[in-house]
Amino acid sequence: MIAVTSFAGMRVAVFGLGGSGLATARALIAGEAKVTAWDDSSESLEKAAAEGIPTQDLKDADFSAFAALVLAPGVPLTHPKPHWVVEKAKAAEVEIIGDIELFARERRKISPASPFIAITGTNGKSTTTALIAHMLKAAGRDVQMGGNIGMPILSLDPLTPDRVYVIECSSYQIDLAPTVDPTVAVLLNLTEDHLDRHGTMEHYAEVKERLVQRAGLAVIGVDDNWSASIADRRAASGLPLKRISTKGSVKDGVWAIGQRVVEPFGLAQTVIIDLSQHPVLRGAHNAQNTAAAVAATRGIHIGLDEVRSGIMSFPGLAHRMEPIGKIGSVTIVNDSKATNSDAAGKALSSYPRIHWIAGGKPKTGGIEDLAPFFPRIAKAYLIGEAAEAFAKTLEGKVPYEICQTLDVAVPMAIEEAATEGGGHPSVVLLSPACASFDQYRNFEVRGDAFRALALAVDGVVPFPEVH
Question: What is this structure's pTM?
Answer without folding.
Answer: 0.82
